[in-house]
Amino acid sequence: MGRQILLIQGHPDTCQRHLCHGLEDAYGQGATAAGHNVKRINVATLDFPLLRSQHEWEKGALPPTLAEAQSAIAWCEHMVLFFPLWLGDMPALLKGFLEQVARPGFAFAAEGKNPLAHKALSGRSARVAVTMGMPALMYRWYFRAHGIKSLERNILGFVGISPVHTSLIGLTGNMKPETASKWLSKLENLGRQGE
What we know:
Elements: E1 4-9, H1 19-33, E2 37-42, H2 54-59, H3 67-75, E3 78-84, H4 92-101, E4 108-111, E5 114-119, E6 125-131, H5 136-142, H6 146-156, E7 164-169, H7 177-193
Parallel strand pairs: 1-2, 1-3, 3-6, 6-7
Antiparallel strand pairs: 4-5
Helix pairs in contact: 1-7
């Protein structure tokens, strides 16, 4: 039986297709062909406000436009996030989306005096597929992939999602078609495996 897989497209540009969109499609095709159940969220098409206070995050209502996204996160067993690296991190729109959906009472719950005792999204795994202009090895080793590590530890790990695997795709600005094709094949294979 296939896995329940959620693909989250975090590229904020709705005016044209980017490599992130191709990678998402390749993963989705592989997953569907292998019998996995796939749902998709395109963050750029959702209308939601940014959170501006801790009180709003803890006590405010989830924007109605994100109810379906939160349901898809609860449904999935594995999620794959696709986004371009901007200023060393995920685009602000994707960060704002994750802040909105990962709220107390949904993503984690208190027990006694420990506000983080229950990580409500435990039992799920994730893959993060990131495109960037610099060489991926430079980002991983020289810059220590700080943005990705922060996502793994402070967002996904915070709510119990583990393990988290990464696919870092560098030099996208001058990528040759054969290199892009190899990456698309790799993501399609990962989709088939549900990883």
